[in-house]
Specification:
Order of helices and strands: EHEHEHEHEHEHEHEHEEHHHHEEEH
Largest sheet: 10 strands, mixed
GO molecular function: RNA binding
Organism: Adineta steineri
CATH topology of the largest domain: Leucine-rich repeat, LRR (right-handed beta-alpha superhelix)
Number of domains: 2
Structural class: alpha/beta
GO biological process, one term: siRNA processing
Strand content: 5-15%
Number of strands: 13
Protein name: Dicer double-stranded RNA-binding domain-containing protein
Strand order of the largest sheet: 1-2-3-4-5-6-7-8-9-10
Number of helices: 13
Domain Dicer double-stranded RNA-binding: 309-353
């Protein structure tokens, strides 16, 4: 490493390096002036190995990306890395996915982020942070002025953790992407986040998939989108919810986004062919409503509603949803999630509608 003056990327993932050998690597990296990316995923690194790497971060002046995903760093190792980040002024991306850092590790990172002025992306998926860890990171969002992307998937944050993060978002002016998939946030957590988004002006992407968000939470998200250009992903199939997919403001008129997104997925020509011609409207409503899919669906939904059967649960716990269209047949969707099953049924109906005479 001392003699190689052109090496910029070193990929050592899945090599079972362990703490002892990473020490020798660390000694070399202290004085290296060319390496920018170091990948040490799947290497059984523990707290001791993290200590050596923390020392590297204090002295190295070229490394911009450090990937330590799927190791055993824990909260003690995270403290060593955090100490290094306090003095580092080059690292941009840090990946600590699957490292069991828990809430204590989040506290150490919070202390580092208060001082660090270069880190823009942090991956903390699957680290059992909990709502307390979310609270520490929320404090970071208040003070840090460089972080733009934060991945917190599958950390058992819950609605309380969502509330803490929402408090941080109220004051944050740099974060652009926040991923909160698989965190059991629910409708209440979604409400907290939506309230914060009324004050936040920089977040552009929020991923809330697989969070048990129901109609009430979706309504809150829809209300936010009326005044915010943020992209929100909250359906389990990855559908993007934007201003084009706004639920109606009244709970009585609420349109389930899982159905509306199916309509949105077609361009206008397809929409006119499948819907407009069938009802002899030829898309006039679409244009008269300033190209609002909400208005169109508000008109057509009552026509479809009587033919959407109540869901049935099968023996294997999957939910069976059937959509019937007069003279066209019955279309089925099956999934363990009701929204996905209904979306599948509607998609099937729309696709076949264009093929049937």
């Amino acid at each position: 490493m001392f003699r190689i003056e052109t090496l910029t990327t070193l990929d050592l993932q899945n090599n079972y390096i362990g703490d002892d050998r990473v020490q020798r690597l660390g000694d070399a990296l202290r004085y290296n002036t060319t390496l920018t990316l170091l990948d040490l995923r799947y290497n059984q690194l523990g707290a001791v190995g993290a200590q050596y790497l923390g020392d590297v971060l204090q002295h190295n002046r070229t490394l911009t990306t450090l990937n330590l995903a799927v190791n055993r760093i824990g909260h003690v190792g995270t403290q060593y890395l955090a100490d290094g980040l306090r003095y580092n002024n080059t690292l941009i991306t840090l990946n600590l996915r699957y490292n069991q850092i828990r809430n204590v590790g989040a506290q150490h990172l919070n202390n580092a982020l208060r001082c660090n002025r270069t880190l823009t992306t942090i991956h903390l998926q699957y680290n059992q942070l909990g709502n307390i860890g979310a609270q520490y990171l929320s404090n970071s969002l208040r003070d840090n002025t460089t972080l733009t992307t934060l991945h917190l998937e599958a950390n058992q944050i819950g609605e309380v953790g969502a509330q803490h993060l929402a408090n941080g978002l109220r004051h944050n002016t740099t974060l652009m992407t926040l991923n909160l998939r698989w965190n059991q946030i629910g409708d209440i957590g979604a409400h907290y986040l939506c309230d914060a988004l009324q004050h936040n002006t920089t977040l552009t992407t929020l991923d809330l998939r697989h969070n048990d968000i129901g109609d009430i939470g979706a309504q809150h998200l829809g209300d936010v989108l009326q005044h915010n250009t943020i992209k929100i992903f909250f359906l389990d199939d990855g559908t993007e919810m934007t201003g084009e997919l706004l639920p109606l403001s009244s709970p009585v008129d609420y349109i389930n986004p899982s159905v509306l997104s199916t309509i949105q997925s077609y361009d206008f020509d397809r929409f006119e062919q499948l819907i407009g011609y069938r009802f002899h409207q030829r898309g006039d409503i679409f244009f008269d409503s300033n190209k609002s899919f909400n208005t169109v669906w508000k008109i057509y939904y009552p026509m479809f509603k009587p033919f959407i059967e109540k869901p049935k649960r099968l023996l294997d716990e999957r939910i069976h949803v059937t959509v019937q269209m007069i003279d066209k047949g019955r279309f089925k969707g099956v999934d363990r999630n009701y929204r996905i099953a209904k979306t599948a049924a509607v998609k099937c109906a729309l696709k076949n509608l264009g093929r049937l005479d």
